[in-house]
Amino acid sequence: MLKMYAKASTISEATQSKSETVSVKGWIYRKRSSGGKIFAIVHDHTGTLQCIIDKSSISAKEWEGIDKAYLESSIIVKGTLKKDERAPGGVEMQVRELEVLHSGEQFPITEYQSPELLLDVRHLWLRSQRMRMIMKARSHVFKYLREFLDKNKFYEITPPILTASAGETGSNLFKVEYFDNEVYLTESSQLYAEAMVYALGKVYTLAPAYRAEKSRTIKHLAEFWMLEPEMAYFNNKMNMNFQAKLVSHVTSRLLKNDMDVLKSLGVDSESLRKIRPPFKTMTYEKAVEKLQQLGSEKKWGDDFGVEDEKLLTMEEEKPIFVANWPKEIKAFYMPVNRDGETVACADMLAPRGHGEIVGGSERIWKEEELVSRMKELNFNLDNYKWYIDLRKYGSVPHAGFGLGVERLIKWVLNLDHIRDAIPFPRMINRITP
Ligand code: 4AD
Ligand code: MG
Q1: Which ligand is nearest to the CA of 360?
Q2: Same structural domain for residues 163 and 258?
């Protein structure tokens, strides 16, 4: 029939084109019929187009096709456009030819459905307006992160996903059979990024990270994407300044280029406009004092939970840094400060209770210091031979951080749950689809 694939365009291309007759390829979003006419709204990733199909102006076969089609059936329509204030997008099409490419079956998602069911049919739910918009924003967030790092002369490097040793928590590793051995899915690419700063100066990885955390929270995924920049000759302060600029770059680019997406998701763009460097920094010690003033029972040495992060940031308009945490609750590679108790690190907490989005620190760059810290923590040094080796040959001070991309998206788009920031979430109770 119609061999229109090649010529058919997206809805936005069609509605902006100068020619009167256009063809559009899309999916049926809504359909109703009345008195020999079918009114169909066709949609694609660029918009929606109201189409009027007159039984008398198409063939019987075409009519049968559209009459039987379901919501989400794929379709190509060809016709003339005319302005109509009432139509979504301001124009409507009088259809002259059409082809239902695939009628398929009745779409299983109706208007009111439980979040669990929507997760079961995630592969289809991704076509919803809301998920489509979030996925557009996600794609752009990846682009803006890379754009900023590229502008700052970083090299993107690709880390291994299978690793023989723990890179961060050590206790939340997924085990994988690797020939005759057991290895792990990476929980952080940092150690590999560190190896590469000696070769390339400023590098980053943008890769999946895996955490077998048993926590069922609105901010934990078992598989998430982490951006991990690592910079030679950076200290903790430079590290924080850079993070503030990076995060502000992402929000300002979204505001500049993606207002349609932000609007459609109901994002408060005025509050995003306030995200500009510098971000406030408070020491861990001050943060504990503040928590106590706000009625929390947290004491020095405790890690913070969701509620504490909320208390600390409820009044904040911008993210804040909490710096210099007790060494007992941070990773082995962070250098101990002169006080002997805290380490040179900082976490960035998003405003209004969205929680930690970045964890970063200086790295121990001297061999003796690293080895003695690892021994203190009862590490098996054999597993970290290569990492220690980096400190034997021309070692330099360096620092870096890990930004949880889904955490960033959750905060910026003000999502209720982190699972919606990734197309196919992996959580303790979900691995399909
Ligand atoms: O604070 P984390 O554990 O730090 C690291 O892994 C360092 N090695 C990073 C580095 O310095 N290169 O994780 C970094 C960030 C967190 O701030 C959070 O945003 C995100 O990764 N994150 C998670 N996101 C979703 N689900 C989880 N289970 C996450 N765990 C950490
Ligand atoms: Mg952390």
Answers
A1: 1
A2: yes
Write the CA distances from 196 to 157, 191, 236, 281, integer angstroms: 8, 9, 19, 29
Task: Tell whether the model's pLDDT for residue 1 goes beyond 60.
Answer: no
Task: Output the CA 303–ligand 1 centroid distance in Å.
Answer: 15
On whether the pTM is more than 0.85, the answer is yes
Report CA(76)–ligand 2 centroid distance (Å): 49
pLDDT of residue 4: 61
Query: Mean pLDDT across the stretch 223-231?
Result: 98
Give the residue-averaged pLDDT of 84-88.
84
What b/e sequence results for 190-199 when a residue is b if at least 16 CB atoms lie within 10 Å of its CB, and e otherwise?
bbbbbbbbee
Q: Report which ligand 1 atom has the smallest distance to the Cα of 400.
A: 11
123 and 60 in one domain?
Answer: no
Provide the domain count of the chain: 2
Asked whether residue 275 is assigned to any structural domain, the reply reads yes
> In the prediction, which pLDDT does 85 show?
87
Residue 3: per-residue pLDDT: 61
The whole domain housing 328 covers 119-421
| CATH code of the domain in which 78 resides | 2.40.50.140
